[in-house]
What does this fold into?
Amino acid sequence: MEDAQKKDDANEPKIIYRGAKVIPLIIGNETFERLGSLGSSANLLVYFTTVFNMDSITATTIVNVLNGSTNLATLPGAFLTDTFFGRFKILSVASIASFLGMFMLTLTAAVRGLHPPHCIEEHSTSCVGPTQCQYLFLLVTLALLVIGGGGVRPCNLAFGIDQFDPHDESSRRGIVSFFNWYYLSFTTALMIAVTVIVYVQSTVSWALGLGIPAGLMFLSCVLFFSGTKLYVKVKPVGSPYVTVVQVFVAAIKKRRLDLSQGAKFSVFDDVPGKSIFPKLPYTNQFRILEKAAIITKEDELNEDGVPANQWKLCSMQQVEQVKCLIRILPVWISGIIYFVFMVSLMQIYIVFQAQQIDRRVGGSKFEVPSASFVAVSMMAVTIFLPIYDRIVVPALRRITKNDGGITMLQRIGFGMIISIPTLILAGIIEAKRRTSALESGHLVSPMSWMWLVPQMAIAGLSDAFAIVGLFEFYYKQVPDNMKSLGGSFFFCGMAMSSYLTSFIISLVHKATTGSVSGNWLPDDLNQGRLDYYYYAIAGLQMVNLVYFFACSRWYKYKVTDGENIDGKFNL
It folds into this structure.
C-alpha cells in the first residue's frame, strides 16, 4: 500500500504557484467581465421602464428577481465546480454564456420587433407593453445571464486564490491584498459602467450602449483563455454538500451514544495522505455532531483506511468542516439584512430619486444619467481602498499583529455602523427634494443633483468595509476544499437580500396604500414618502447591528497552520 502511495505521489505533477505573475490576467479578465455584466445590468431599470414600457414596480421586481436568481445560481454553480468540473471549466462555460446573454440583450434594443413601440409620454397609461414573444426572448436572454453569473461569481475570486501557495506566508499576505484589489477592480468597472456606458445608453443609443458591454465581455473571454497554460487548476475533490449531509445523517444514526463516556469510544480522525489542505484543529462547539466520527462495532474500514459506509462513519475533519459552515450561518444572516441597505439605496431608489431631481451640470444642457449616481459610491471606494491597503493596513498590522490590520468581523462591523447614518441622511435629503418639487409644482425637483452626492459617498465607505470584509470572511472561513461554496455564501446572501428587499417593498406598498400618510413608494416619488422608507430601513439596520455584535462575540475563527485570531468584536 505504502509503495503504491509513493508511486502515485511521484506521478503527480508538481504544482507551480505563479501568484502575482498571473493575477494581472485574472484581474484583467474580472475587470472586463464586470464592465460587460455591469454595463448591461446597471441601467436595466431605466431600460425596462423606457424601452419595454414597464411600470416601476414591475421593472423593480424583474431586476430584483434577476439579481436574486443570478446570485442564487452560484449555489448549483459551486456544486458543479467542486464536485465534477473544477473552477477553470465552469468559468470557461459561464463566460461564454454571459457573452451570449449580453449579445441577445443588445438585439432586444437593436431589432424593432424585439421590443414594444416607443412611448412618447412618461408615466402614461396608454403605453403599449411587450408582447408574449418579446417577453419570451427577454426571458431567454436573462436566463443566459443568470447561467453566466452563476458560474463566474462563485469561481472567479476562488480561482485567483488558487494561484497562491497556501503554505507560504508571503503568499498569504498577497491574498489579503488580492481581496482589496479584486474589489477595487469591481468598483472601477462599475464606475465606468454607470458613467460612460450608461451615458451612451441614455443619450446616444441603447443598441450601442448594450453592444459595448457585449464587446467587452468578448475581450474578457479572450484574456481569460490566453492564460490557460499558466493557471493552477485545482481538481474537484467531491461535493461539499454530500459531506455536510453525511455528517448529519451519521450523527442522527448515532444520536443515542453518550459523548460524556468518551473513554469507551475511539474516534475516526483520518486525514488523507495526499491532501493539499491543512488540517482543522478540534473545536468544542456543536459537539453533538462529533457522534458521526465515533467508531462502533458495526463500522468497518476498507484496506485504504476509508470507511466502508460513509453515511454511518465520518472523520473528525468532516465534522470540523461542517462546524465551520454552521458557525458562518449567523453572520451570513446578518449580511443578508445589511445588503437590504445596499439594494434599496444604491441599486433601486437612487435611480428613481435621480430621475426627479435637476441633473443638469452647471448651466449647460448636459444631464447626469440617473443610473450613474452609484459611481459616486464607487469613486469613494476607488480612492479609499488603495489608501487603506497601502497605508492603513500596514500601520494597523504593526499594532495588532494581524495580517489584515483588523479582524474580518471588525471590518464588517464598521461598514454596518456607517450604513445607519447614511440611510438617515438619505431620508433627510429625500424629504427636502420632495418638498422642493411640490412647492415648484413640477415632476422634477429644482434641487441640484449635488445633494445626492454625500449619501452615496458615505455609502461607498460602508461598502469598502463591509462588502470586502464579507468577501474575505466567507472565502477564508469555509473549509479549504469548499472555496467555491464560500463564493456562494456571499452571492446567495445577496440573492436572499434581493428577494427580501422585493418583499419589503411590496409589503410597504400594500400596507401604506390608502393610509393616512399615503403610499410611501408610488411611481411618482413626489406623491410618496420615500424618506419614511429610508428611516424604516435604518431602524432595521440598527437591530441587525446589535444581532451582529452578538454573533461576532460568539464566533470562533477557523484556525490552521498555527494561526491565532481573536474572533471577538472589541467594542
User: Anything to note?
Assistant: The first strand starts at residue 266 and ends at 267. Residues 316-355 form the longest helix (40 residues).
